[in-house]
Amino acid sequence: MRIFDPHIHMTSRTTDDYERMAAAGVRAVVEPAFWLGQPRTSAATFVDYFDSLIGWEPFRAGQFGVRHHATVALNPKEANDPRCHPVLDLLPRYLDKDGVVAVGEIGYDSMTPAEDAAFAAQLALAVGHDLPALVHTPHRDKARGVERSLAVVTESGIDPGRVLVDHLNEVTVKLVRDTGCWLGFSIYPDTKMTPGRMVELLKTYGTERMLVNSAADWGRSDPLLTRATGEAMLLAGFTDDDVDRVLWRNPVEFYGQSGRLDLGDLDTPAATFAGNSILRGGE
Ligand SMILES: [Zn+2]
Fold it and tell me: Which residues cross the membrane (predicted)?
């Protein structure tokens, strides 16, 4: 089973995770920029964060045979903090980088006017830079959040086929299914979707434009739930080809629209990054 996790925050994970993911078949990941769990105090700290998303983290992933790409954005939660707004002016420089395959994650957290403004501005950046967009949907008041997100997407003029609407469930899948957008599902250990519930959705809605991710981060989460979902699909009678479509070909097709997805030569990692290896001391 080859697996592409289209949404995972590897910066918050350990090398043990990379080893277990590689052993489970995860060959590629996309890491969206998001918040750190505590507020950033200035836009300057995003510079170091984005630099690590396109520098150190891809290098670290490569040591385990995992290809790493990133999406960059001002995340919905921090769109509410005026200290972070200047990051919008930094984004164009990162959206031109090779390892950046979409604008994201953008969208709504609490559906405030500040989030409206950041969401629309960043969809415009996606259009301007000819990149796909990864849209986070709120964890509270989900249906209204998805409806409003879809309205903003339509208003932006971006091609819906270049938009991935993420963190969907049984209720919100219905709202997105016929919009032309791609559908993302985050499988968590004890909240939101489970592998079993995901399989039921795939039975109902099919495999087209459906993406499964672990969204693993600094909270309780499990980077192997993509694999568990693939196994649950097989047990439920889906074919190897169905699993490959959901866990590999769909994310490749979606992020491939950036023109920057590089999945060649996963077996020859770089020796060092900026003079450092993952062995302490740089040897
Ligand atoms: Zn996320």
Answer: none
